[in-house]
Specification:
Elements lengths: L1 E6 L2 E4 L4 E9 L3 E10 L6 E6 L5 E3 L7 E6 L4 E6 L8 E10 L4 E5 L3 E6 L1
Parallel strand pairs: 2-11
Antiparallel strand pairs: 1-3, 3-8, 4-5, 4-9, 5-6, 7-8, 9-10, 9-11
Length: 119
């Protein structure tokens, strides 16, 4: 079994920072692309940022220059450093990873962590 466990969400004032972590555990051979999505109330889930195993990244325009994704392949962990947070960043943040468990490669999702930015 493979699980993704997220941590680091919370309540922060506008302009503040938060760091999210997401660790894969269980039978993990290697992790391929890892990503963060978010879903605000009444809105569709959107891709925020992704990072390949080799470290190539992409970001949605609304977070460029404020958010930074990184990963530690040895720990099967992905991070999201969020700076200069805005109220519109309020959402449930989900991590996802493409993981090979020695038998097959599948996409896994974390349970989500709430980020609330007050104005």
């Amino acid at each position: 079994q493979v699980q993704l466990v997220e941590s680091g969400g919370g309540l922060v004032q506008a302009g503040g920072s938060l760091r999210l972590s997401c660790a894969a555990s269980g039978t993990v051979f290697y992790t391929d692309t890892m990503a963060w999505y978010r879903q605000a109330p009444g809105k569709q889930r959107e891709l925020v940022t992704a990072i390949t195993r080799g470290g190539n990244t992409n970001y949605v325009d609304s977070v460029k220059g404020r958010f930074t994704i990184s990963r530690d392949n040895a720990k099967n962990t992905v991070y999201l450093q969020m700076n200069s947070l805005k109220p519109e960043d309020t959402a449930v943040y989900y991590c996802t990873a493409r993981i090979n468990n020695y038998r097959r490669t599948s996409d896994y999702w974390g349970q989500g962590t709430q980020v609330t930015v007050s104005s």
